[in-house]
């Protein structure tokens, strides 16, 4: 059953039913409300007009609500599926593909980053309707998870891009990515930059952080034979295009901005961002695993490493 609780604008006679939801004994995990019945902290996308969960003030109710259709259902399940997929991919790769411990380590860092990102996102989208403190805390975790994924994606690429180079060079690039990631976290997790009005700023921070990969990327491509290394590099470009496209779509909120109310449940911008992130993770994995295979098994470079 889907009970639509609506608070008409300007109506004095109707109580704000969303405020009554936390009362004990009320099972509201399958309820949805219209945008104008939401508390301010949940109403951060004015183009999604209906199908919102009310404030639930209960973790079990928030979890149960994941099994009903509302504005966050698809966001919850896309990244939950991503988490499961990453675990399966990690087990497969680390047990059957990896040739040595440093290959395992560099890919484990990447898999862990992807898991943390999509795991935090799943929890965030599940618990955002609990209460304002939960929404605020898990939004920060969600943003930090994206930063972790971006920085962790550097690990296999830097390791195998500079496979035969000194450890200092790898440490320099990984350390730089780590420091840039810390700086990005400092911005996206700051209280003053939370809220929908800073959506563009956050997207820009994520995109700029991702673009710091241009440094080691260009170094890698120009310090090796252009071919076939450009083949591997092209996967990085595809990954960047996916992340940047997702970031822009998230920032401008298309398609719901163009047709408000038509994408409340399906195909809203945030869901497109999630799909872009998942495809970006797959692209990163595919390119990095091909590069690792090429350098270790085809070229058989630096067997002492
Ligand atoms: Zn999300």
TrEMBL record:
GO terms (BP aspect): adiponectin-activated signaling pathway
Predominant place of localization: membrane
Binding site for Zn(2+): 125, 270, 274
Pfam families linked to this entry: HlyIII
Location of this chain's protein in the cell: Membrane
InterPro entries (UniProt xref): AdipoR/HlyIII-related
Chain segments annotated as transmembrane: 76-95, 107-129, 141-159, 171-188, 200-218, 230-252
Membrane topology category: Multi-pass membrane protein
Keyword annotations from UniProtKB, A to Z: Membrane, Metal-binding, Transmembrane, Transmembrane helix, Zinc
One Gene Ontology cellular component annotation held by this UniProt entry: plasma membrane
A GO molecular-function descriptor: signaling receptor activity
PANTHER family: ADIPONECTIN RECEPTOR PROTEIN, ADIPOR/PROGESTIN RECEPTOR-RELATED
Family statement drawn from the similarity comment of this UniProt entry: Belongs to the ADIPOR family.
UniProt-recorded name of the protein: Uncharacterized protein
Taxonomic source organism: Capitella teleta
């Amino acid at each position: 059953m889907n009970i639509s609780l609506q608070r008409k604008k300007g109506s004095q006679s109707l109580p704000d039913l969303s405020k009554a939801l936390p009362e004990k004994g009320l099972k509201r995990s399958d309820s949805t409300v219209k945008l104008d019945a939401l508390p301010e902290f949940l109403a951060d996308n004015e183009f999604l007009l209906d199908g919102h969960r009310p404030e639930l003030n209960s973790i079990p109710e928030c979890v149960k609500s994941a099994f009903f259709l509302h504005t966050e259902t698809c966001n919850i399940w896309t990244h939950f599926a991503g988490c499961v997929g990453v675990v399966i991919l990690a087990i497969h790769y680390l047990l059957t593909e990896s040739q040595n411990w440093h290959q395992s380590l560099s890919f484990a860092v990447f898999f862990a980053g992807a898991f943390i990102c999509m795991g935090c996102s799943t929890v965030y989208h599940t618990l955002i309707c609990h209460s304002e403190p939960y929404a605020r805390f898990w939004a920060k975790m969600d943003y930090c998870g994206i930063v972790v994924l971006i920085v962790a994606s550097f690990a296999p690429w830097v390791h195998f891009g500079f496979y035969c180079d000194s450890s200092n060079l790898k440490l320099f690039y990984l350390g730089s990515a780590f420091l840039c990631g810390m700086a990005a976290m400092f911005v996206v997790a700051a209280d003053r930059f939370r809220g929908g009005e800073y959506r563009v700023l956050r997207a820009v921070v994520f995109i700029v952080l991702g673009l710091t990969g241009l440094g080691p990327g260009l170094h890698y491509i120009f310090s090796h034979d252009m071919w076939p290394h450009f083949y591997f590099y092209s996967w990085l470009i595809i990954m960047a295009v996916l992340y940047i496209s997702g970031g822009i779509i998230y920032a401008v909120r298309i398609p719901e901005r163009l047709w408000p109310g038509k994408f409340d449940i399906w195909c809203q911008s945030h869901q497109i961002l999630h799909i872009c992130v998942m495809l970006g993770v797959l692209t990163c994995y595919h390119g990095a695993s091909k590069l690792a295979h090429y350098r270790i098994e085809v070229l058989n470079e630096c067997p002492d490493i």
